[in-house]
Amino acid sequence: MGLGSVGAKAQTEPRQIQGFVVDSIGTRLKGVTIRLTSTSDTITAISSNAGYYRFKDVKGTDIRVFYSMLGYQSVNRALSSPKSSSFIVMPNVVLRSQSSLLEGVYVVKTIPVVYAGDTIQYNMDAFTFRANSLLEEALKQLPGIQVSRDGTVYAQGKPISSVQVDGRKFFGGDVLTATRNLPADFIKSIQILNHRDAYITDRSFTTEEPEKILNIVLKEDSKRISFGQLTAGGGTRERYIGSAGLNRFNDGQEFSVVGSMNNTNTSLFSFGSPTGVGEREKSLLDINDFADPTDGLNNIKSLGFSFSDNLADQTQFNASYSFTRKKNFTEGNSILQSDYFRNRISNEEKYDVTNDDNFHRFTAELKHRFKNHDVLEIKPVFSYSRVYVWNNRKRHVNNNRVTNRGTYQDSSYQKNPNLDVNIQYAKAFQKPGRKLLGNVSLNFNSQRKLEDVFDRYISVDSMPVDPIQSLYEQRYFIQQRNGTDGIRAAMSFVEPFSERSTLEFSYNYELTDMTTQRIVEDKLKSEELGYFFYVDSLGVNYNYRFRNSRMGLNYQYTPNKAFKANIGFGVQPVRLTGFLPREDMQYTYENVNLVPTAGFKWRLNEETDWSVDYMGKNNQPNLLHIIPVRDNSNSQNIIVGNPELKAEFSNRISTTLRKFVTSKGQYLETNFAYNYVANKIVSDKNAVSGSTIQETTFKNTDGYYDIKWYYLFNTPLFNENVQLDISGNTDYYNNLSYVNDQRNTTQQFIYSQSAQLRYTWSDYFESMFNANYLLNKASYTWPYPTKITGQSLLASVATKGYLGDHITLGAEMSQRFNSGYASSFMNINPTIINAYLEFSFLHNKRALLRLQGFDLLDQNKNMGTYSEYIGNDVYEARNNRLGRYFMVTLNLRLQKYPKNKK
C-alpha cells in the first residue's frame, strides 16, 4: 500500500487513539484525566489501573490531547501529522510530580507511532540516539528491525529491498547508501511498507510476495540542507579505507555524490538488493555473528550520484548512476560426495578464485500527471558488467575403483549489457472506483563470454592385478554469445457495479526469445594440426521462445471494513518452442493452465488482521536446462540439456496473521504456506561405468512440494528500556531427482530460532544479547536411506558505554558451535571478539577518531563454511575470510543549513 493511499483513506475515516500514562520512573498511573479536542470533537477519558486510555471514533483535524492529575505537571500533546492512519498509538506520556498545587504545563514534542495495515511507522523522537548517529545505527534501536554487520536491514524478519526519502527513491533505492550516509537527526519518522510491484496490473493473480521498503520522512527543517562526510583510515595488514559523500536536499530537490575505496570488505552500494552483487544469500540467523560475512578478500572502489527534482508542477524526475569495481580473492577447499549403488564418487578440491567485477548501473524515473489526472510513468534501468575470472583447482577424485589426481584451470572474460524499460499509463475516470491501467515492459539482455579451460589429471585404475595408469589432458577455448529479449504487456480494467463489489478484467501477454551460439576450439588438437580445430559436437546454435498469455476475471467483495474477498479465474495458454538451425529440428510444448485464485482478508479488530491466499504461476526452464548439447568442458561433470522440457506450474496457498498489541507495545506476525509444483524440472544424473565421471541432464516430474512457516514477535520487557525480539522458521522440502534412472526423494527439514534482547541502561550504557539455533536435517532414499543432521548454535553479546560526552567504548563477542556435518572442517567453533574506542571533538562533535580491533583471536579467517544437500549429493565447502587487523579512522561530518530557513 502506498503512502498516498494510506493518507487518503485516513482522511475519510474516524480514528482511534490510545496509549499509556506513566510517572518519571516508568510506573503506570491510574486516574489521570485525559481530554481530547479536535475541530469536530471534545472527549474525556480516565486512565485505567494499568495507565491505559483509548479514544474511539475521533473525528476532525488539529487534534490535541491534555493530561492532568493532582500533584503532577500537566502535559499537552499535539498530533502534528495524524492523517497517515486511522489507528494511532501515542508514545508513553510522562507526568512529573510537582511540589506546589499550582497548575503547570509541560509541553512534549511528539509524533505518533502508527500501525496501519501494510505500513508500520516509527516515531524517531520517541527514541534516544547519540548525536551525529547515522541511520544505520539508529535502525538497530527500533523494535522489530535488525541490521547485520554487512549493512543488510531486516524489518519484521524480512530484508529491506529498497529505500525512499519522502516517498522518492534515494540513489535508485540503494539500501546501504541511504543507511550509511543519512544522519538520524534529520529524520522525523521511519515507515516500513509492504510494497508490491507497481507494474502488476493483474494483482489478484500475482504470486510475488510484497517486498519491504523503507521510507524516510525528513524533518521540516532538514528538507533544505547540505551535508556530507569524509572518512580516512589505515591499519595493520595493509588495511585501508577512504570515503566521501556530499548531499543536498532543497524542498524536494535532491542531489548526492558518494565515493569509497577500501580493502576491509566494506561495500557502499547494494544495487537495490540486500545480497549485493556476486555474494551468497545472507540469513537473518547471522545478524549478530560479529564475524565478517563475506567470503574472500575484497578490494572495492565505488562511485555514484543521484538526482531528483520536480521538472514542473505535475512532473517528477529522478536518476542515479553507480559504478563499483570489486576484486575478490577467495581460496578454500570443498568435498562433494555422490552416492550410487555400491559406488561412492568423492571429489575433494583445493582452489583459489580471483574475480574482478566492474559494474555500472543507471536508473531513471519520470512521472507525469496530466490535467485530466491521467498518470504516465517511465522507468528505464541500464546496467553493464565486465567480469574477469581466474579459477585454479587441485582435484582428488575417486570411487571404489578409479583415482584421479590433477588440476583444473578456468579463466574467462564476460561482458553483459542489460536494459529494462517499464512504461505504465493509468487512466482517470469521474466515476469512483473505475480504473484502467496498462503497462509495457521491455528487456534486452546480451552476454559475450570467452573462456579458456585446461583440465589435466592422472588416472589410476586399481581393479586389475597390475593397476593401469593413464594421462588425461583437455584444453578448450570457448566463445559463447547469449541473448535474451522479452516483452510483457498487461491491461487491467476495474468496474464497480455496487457500493461493495468490483469486477476486474485483465489480460497479460509475455514473450521471451533466447538465442545462444557457442564455438569450442580444441587447442591441443589445433597445436597438433597447425590450424584451428573446432569440436562440432560441442558447438551450439539454438533459438528458444517462451510465449505466455493470460486472461483473467476477478471479483472483489467488501461488505464492510472488517472483511474483503477476492475470487478469480484465469486461462493461461503456454507455448515453448526450441529450434536447432543446424539440424533443422524444432521442439514444441503447448499447454493450457486453468488458474483459479482466491484471497480473503479479515480485520478481526482494530489490532488484528488475518488473510488467506491461493495463487498459481508458470516457471519456464532456463538456458542451462534446455540447450541440446553435451557440455564436457568439465570432464568430471558433463551437462546435457533437454530441449523437450515443459514449463513448471506452481500452486501456492498461504495464510498470514498479524497482531499489534498496542496496550503492551507488542507486534506478532506468523505465516504458513504450502507450495506444490507440477512438472517440476529436476536433475537426471548417471555415473559413467568404470570411471569417476558423472553425466547430468534434466526432466519433468510430479511430486515436489514444500511447506514453510515462520513467526516473529517483539515486545518490551518490564519497561521500554528492555526490548525482546524473537523469530523462528520451519521449512520442509520434498525434493525429487533421478539417479541412474531411479527416482530419488530428498527430504530436507530446516529449523531456526533467534532471540535478541536489547537493554538500554541509561543514556550512557547499552547492551545487546543474542542467541540463534539452526538445525539442517536432510535425508535421501537412493541408493540407500541416508541421513545428515547439521546443527549450529550462536551466542553473542555486545556492549557500548559513553564516558562523558566525547569518549565511547565498545566490545562485541560471539561464540558459534557447529556439529553433525559430514566434513570435519565444517564442525568448527570460532570465537569472534571485536573492540573499539571512539573520541569525538570539534564543534557539535563533527569529528570522530576511532581505534578498532577486529577479530582479536584471528578465528574469522577460515569461517566461510557452506553446505548443500541435493539428490544423492552432499556438498560442503570452507572459504577464507578477513582475519584480524587493527585500524585507526578519522571521520569528519559536514553540515550546512540555509541562512533563511522556512
TrEMBL record:
Taxonomic classification: Bacteria, Pseudomonadati, Bacteroidota, Sphingobacteriia, Sphingobacteriales
Superkingdom of origin: Bacteria
Pfam family, one: CarboxypepD_reg
Keywords per UniProt: Receptor
Organism for this UniProt entry: Sphingobacterium arenae
Claim: Cytoplasm is one of the keywords in the record: no
Residues of the Outer membrane protein beta-barrel domain: 428-833
Iron is among the record's keywords: no
Family matches, as InterPro entries: CarboxyPept-like_regulatory, OMP_b-brl_3
Protein name as annotated: TonB-dependent receptor
SUPFAM superfamilies in alphabetical order: Carboxypeptidase regulatory domain-like, Porins
